[in-house]
Amino acid sequence: MSLGSRAPVAKKKRDEAERPFWISFSDLMTALMVLFLVAMSVALMAITREISEAEEKKAEREAEIAELMQRLHNATREFPGVRVHGRVVDFGDRARFETNSHRLSDAQARLLRGFTPHILALARDPLGDKWLKRVVVDGYADARGSYLHNLNLSLQRSERVLCVLQALPPQPLPLSEADRQLVRELFLVGGASFNALRESAEESRRIEMRLEFRDLDEAPVGPRPPTGDGDGRCPLDL
């Protein structure tokens, strides 16, 4: 090479200079598919976690309610003939109504006033305060008589139970003022004509107390304003 001549410059390949920077369409679709799968996996994991938490809360609720009902079942040992099945207290032969009557004997009234404080104790328990919504008193009728007559009789029988629980001295074993107030806040009249007949007409004329519990997302009702006893007389006797 002569001293005055220039060194040859290496030529870049034409295809290297013109090669595009963009990725191919197939590579782009593959990347998008991967992103989609990742997003779906994250979403499914979140949904599965929410379902698991909901199922766990539901199981916890059922277990706590079962514990409350077991306590009530244990209390029936002091009251032979009174049974707890499911979420219902059945007073059985201890509290039958006579035909076409809503009256209860003194012994039946003492039984109801003796057992009810056990329900109220559950209502005051932290678990009861958390879940117990209300207690519905159902006074059943048998199939004899017309539908409307038996419906009215059932309501009167339910009302009679609440009258017994609100009785004032000198009635035997009256509830305390605090218990009577809680009954007024918590207990409701249900009444059922002949929707759940038993084997005999006598067995159908019974008293049941049905405990109802809040749902998972149901907020408790605020405290109700206190109401007075009045004169303690049952409207059914006026």
Task: Please outline what is shown here.
The protein has 238 residues and is α+β, with helices and mostly antiparallel strands. The protein is 47% helix and 10% strand.
Oligomer: single chain
Low-confidence stretches: none
Order of helices and strands: HHEEHHEHHEHE
Biggest sheet: strands side by side, in what order? Answer: 1-2-5-3-4
Label the overall shape.
elongated
Structural class: alpha+beta
Chain-averaged pLDDT: 85
Give me the Rg, rounded: 36 Å
Provide the number of structural domains. 1
Task: Using the coordinates above, name the CATH class.
Answer: Alpha Beta
Percent of residues in helical segments? 40-55%
Report the strand count: 5
The CATH superfamily appears as OmpA-like domain
Strand content: 5-15%
The biggest beta sheet is recorded as:
5 strands, mixed
Through-space gap between termini: 135 Å
